[in-house]
Design a protein that fits this description.
By secondary structure, the protein is mainly α. The chain is built from five helices and two strands.
Length: 294
């Protein structure tokens, strides 16, 4: 209206607003679907007359990324191999299978039992019940199943194959655990560097908005430039939130892979006291207090 822009720029602004409004509606639908899934997961009843936009709980998010410090993948793999319950179960199965094979092989060898007996009999030659005769026996009893139709041998071979299968399953699970640790470790380090870089991008976008506003006030820029800079700042903040989510997802996957919560890493020796070789993750300035679900 003041002659500092054109109708074309106004239409471009309106198109941008329309596009962002469409994205907003899609994001709202995604949020409602996530809230419904969360209520089902936590078994929280949803009132029949309640609106889908009014969930029966409140969520407070906390996207502060704790720095992991100097961690080594070989230490994480060693912890995972010693603490993962899947591997412990397979180790017990292997131990049971080995004992069963020993039992099967024992059926093929002779068996020798030692026995001692004490027998007391009444003397039949006298009428008194107080008179008795005691007899003792000590000896050995040997048995040997010379031929059983190869049943024992077949059972031994069957249990030996079960033992071999258990060893193969153990090796496969070990490789899977190592792959999970390496993948989560790589994603965590990448996300840690990305969060640091994205935080700097947000600061640059904030400075860009300030300069655009100052240029618009002095007549060197249009309102479209200010709106575009603001849109870039919003996109940078959204990207920062997404990278923080990726960081926390990778950290949770790494906790699951090694079966240790992050708060216990220091006392278990996962985090070294030496200086970190990866950048320190700054806290999220937009984060709310720690999240709770009521």
């Amino acid at each position: 209206d003041a002659g500092r822009t054109t109708k074309f720029n106004v239409l471009r602004v309106q198109v941008n607003i329309g596009n962002q409004r469409s994205i907003l509606y899609q994001t709202q639908d995604t949020l409602v679907a996530a809230q419904i899934a969360l209520a089902q997961l936590l078994n929280i009843p949803w009132q029949r007359k309640a609106s889908p936009y009014n969930p029966p709980f409140a969520v407070q998010e906390n996207l502060t990324c704790p720095p992991v410090g100097n961690i080594k993948v070989e230490d994480l793999i060693a912890l995972a191999m010693s603490r993962r319950p899947e591997l412990q179960v397979l180790d017990r199965q292997i131990d049971m299978a080995e004992r069963q094979v020993k039992i099967d092989k024992a059926a093929l060898v002779p068996r020798v039992d030692a026995y001692v007996s004490d027998q007391s009999l009444r003397d039949q030659s006298v009428s008194s019940f107080d008179q008795s005769v005691n007899s003792y026996a000590v000896g050995f009893l040997g048995t040997w199943n010379v031929f059983d139709g190869f049943a024992s041998k077949g059972q031994t071979l069957s249990d030996t194959s079960i033992l071999g299968t258990a060893h193969i399953s153990r090796d496969q699970m070990g490789l899977q655990v190592q792959s999970e640790v390496r993948e989560a470790y790589a994603r965590l380090l990448t996300a840690q560097e990305t969060v640091q870089a994205q935080a700097a991008t947000v600061k640059t976008a904030e400075q860009s908005v300030g300069l655009a506003q100052l240029s618009a006030d002095t007549g060197y820029a249009t309102l479209l430039d200010v709106l575009q800079a603001t849109l870039d700042l919003t996109a940078a903040r959204i990207q920062e939130i997404q990278t923080r989510q990726q960081y926390l997802d990778a950290l949770a996957d790494l906790e699951k892979a090694i079966s240790i919560k992050f708060v216990d890493w220091q006392k278990d020796g996962v985090i070294s006291n030496s200086p970190a070789r990866t950048p320190t993750v700054v806290p999220n300035p937009l984060a709310t207090p720690p999240g709770v679900v009521r």
